[in-house]
Design brief:
Elements lengths: L4 H18 L22 E3 L10 H11 L9 H13 L6 E4 L2 H12 L5 E6 L4 H8 L3 E6 L8 H8 L4 E6 L11 H10 L5 E5 L25 E6 L12 E4 L2 H5 L12 H12 L1 H24 L3 E2 L6 E5 L4 H10 L2 E3 L10 E4 L3 H12 L4 H5 L1
Amino acid sequence: MPTSRRDLFRRLGIGVAASVVSHPLSRVAFASPITADQPAPSTLVQLNRDENAYGPSEKVLAVLRESIASSNRYPRTECDSLVQKIAATHAVQPEQVILGPGLSAIYRSVANIFLGPGKRLIQALPTSSCLGGFAKQADTDVIDVHINKRYQHDFPAMLAAAGRSESFIYISNPNGATSTLTPRKDIEAFLDKLPPEANVVIDESYHHFVNPNGEYASFLDQPMADPRVVVARTFSKAYGLAGMRVGYLIAPRPIAHRFKGEKLQADVTIVSARAATAALDDSEYLQFAIKRNADDRQEFLNRVNGYMMRALDSHSNFIMLDPMRPADHVVEHLKAHDVVIGPLTPAMPKYVRISLGTPAEMNKFWAAWDLMPATGKMAM
């Protein structure tokens, strides 16, 4: 059965309590439980970070409970075992897997290795901001190329920006800022025209949520023999492990070798490594999570249509919605009713960003929405 984030910690707490009882330190006095005069847990609905609101599978939760007692230990073979499993999943060699504590840490290393003064990063506008942020910190020239009218990467403009220089290209597909797709054939044509000095990372964080269609194919499921292309994935979305912080790159050997000094794998915890390994083993839950997200997304879009609003075609677990009223007013209204949605995107000022939650969370979202003043009153 699915589990919410609150259930995750409640159920993990059962395992913690059991370990405390059997542990020699169980005689130590711990903090008293919440009493009636203390504030109740927050009822805030957080639809702002593209998390899997249901949490990981029961099998992963069981591994997490078992692993809590080992949280005083550094990983031994756990990370190597996870790398082996990731490599087998994608039919690559283990030395091609760069494992790290979330994609944010890995992108910091990408900036350290590939970017810096005199280098340039070319990316869509808008797109996921993580790599661009680290690039700017490294004094890299970041060139933002606005997406086209179909909300896809504008590859002719990106190609012109690359020129013949040693550029690094970031492609997020589905786009982490819009949830829209850029067709595979367009990416391939772009790669064919790029100069050999360029390197490319294709971020497939939302890969599992893509609606089946003829325009999309993962660069891991259908790889290209291109020594410049690196593909990024995460356990934070479909697998429901955002709090565990595990991400990885699949790279050609020469590029992967350049990460050797970064020691990213050493920062993945023993608990996180075991949880991610268990998640890869539970393919049945992954398929269930994919279908549930598709159903929740369609239900949301049905409501959007009923309200006569417009949303971009989504291939992730968030929706970019044109609410037909000032976006900043919408954000503030929902916040006042304990519903937090994503921050505004400057490049798309008419849209609000809403992550999908559980049915109960989405019911609260729509209840708050129905309390919104009429458009004319909000604009006053």
